[in-house]
Amino acid sequence: MTGVIRTVLGDIDPAELGVTDSHDHLFFASKLLPGEELDEVEPARDVLLDFKAAGGSALVQWTPYGLGRRIGDLARLSRETGVHIVAATGFHRAAHYAPEVVREVVDDLARIFVDDLTGSTRAGLIKVAGAFHTLDDHARTTLTAAAVAHQETGAPIAVHLEHGTAALEVAGLLCDTHEVPADRVILGHLNRNPDDALLREIAARGTFLGFDGPSRANHATDWRLPDCLETLVGAGHGGQILLGGDTTTATARHEPGASYLLTTLAPRLAKRLGEDAVTAMLVANPARAFATSRPR
Questions:
Q1: Is residue 294 part of a domain?
Q2: Does residue 22 form part of some domain?
Q3: Among the four 12, 41, 143, 193, which has the fewest Cβ within 10 Å?
């Protein structure tokens, strides 16, 4: 299989993906966020319908294995709303799981990932995570398993960068050590560490660049985003940029929600960067980022 995007309802041509929220969560449950679980179907349906009404066509859920993905509900919601949904396999930072879960699965991660990507789960990407400013043993284990699964399936690897850090270390391990092509790697949360010189260095590696979670009061918020993106577009990296909402809590569903990408953020960026550049971030770039490559 090559050159397709695996959605929860089956494989589609990348040209069918359309306007895409490249990083979000309809369902998510972590022990780090007690009482803020995204585990109700009706609010998830409302998110998709609002996103569709704003012009959205596809949403990529980065919720990995063991954190409440609700694959069956994703498929039903996609069918009912007409919004393409791409689901994830993968494994987050250990802190999100009960210790016994980590012990039970850590030695079998590559097999779990491959099974999710090739079986009835219909996962379309592998989501793993770095550590804060480094790669700890857990990150190295999960990233290595992701590389093995990529080599067998061709699926893209999406990486949570803790507070936007350790991007170069992640790229080094995946692309240099494990020979994953750079354009099969998506580095998330780069907006949380808005260092222009560092962003240009990361972009030069050739990975996709995820800017997600707009308007989070505890992160570098939207006022920094146009400057960062203008720097990258001006340096020739506009074809690597992806935009997402990254809603991870019930409260955040309304602050500001996935549709904000299209109703507020995209028009603001278009005034600064031009319509064509923003359209690429929402349409052409996701179509390439989330397509499978030919397995080895």
A1: no
A2: yes
A3: 41
Residue 107 lies in a domain: yes
Cα–Cα dist 251/269, whole Å: 25
CA atoms within 13 A on the CB side of 66: 23
Q: How many CB atoms lie within 10 A of CB 121?
A: 21
Tokens of 75: 């498929």
DSSP state of 34: T
Angle (CA) 11-16-17 rounded to 5° is 85
Distance, in Å, from the CA atom of 232 to the CA atom of 242, rounded to the nearest integer, reads: 12
Residue 25 belongs to domain spanning = 18-289
What's the pTM? Answer: 0.96
Tally of structural domains, the chain: 1
Q: CA of 208: how far to CAs of 51, 145, 168, 239, in Å?
A: 23, 20, 13, 8
Contact assessment for residue 248 and residue 33, using Cβ atoms and an 8 Å cutoff? yes
CATH (domain of 55):
3.20.20.140
Q: Three-state secondary structure along 118-166?
A: HCCCCEEEEEEECECCECCHHHHHHHHHHHHHHHHHCCCEEEECHHHCC
- Alpha-helical regions (H) of the chain: 41-53, 71-81, 99-105, 109-118, 137-153, 167-171, 196-203, 225-234, 260, 266-273, 275-279, 285-289
Q: Residue 155 has which token pair?
A: 């699926």
Mean pLDDT for each 10-residue chunk of the chain (296 residues)?
Answer: 87 98 97 94 96 98 98 98 98 96 96 97 98 97 98 98 96 98 97 94 98 68 87 98 93 81 94 97 98 80
